[in-house]
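Intended use. Records like the one below are meant for learning the mapping from a protein sequence to its folded structure. Do not use them to infer anything beyond what is encoded.
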Amino acid sequence: SDTMAALARQLERAKDCALECQFEFDNNRFVFSSTPDGAQPLHPGSITTGFRRLCDKAGLKGVRLHDLPHLQATQLLATGCRCVQSAAASATPTPG
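Structure written out for the chain above:
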């Protein structure tokens, strides 16, 4: 699946990062990590914080990361894309 392929690519990037930093990457470590050796999980808020910094730098006010899938769905609909495809593209993952 696309998800598994994306995770496999991220795992390889994590391993490469660990090697570049002269750390041993343990397969029981975090694939999404805030440290090169994968010892610490990536805090979920760090993605949002980075996005806010980019928006501030670009002068964008009031844009939330959560808004992006909805924007994509709106643009897909405007091009004549079928609703089913647009709904799938705008799906927001839920924990669980």
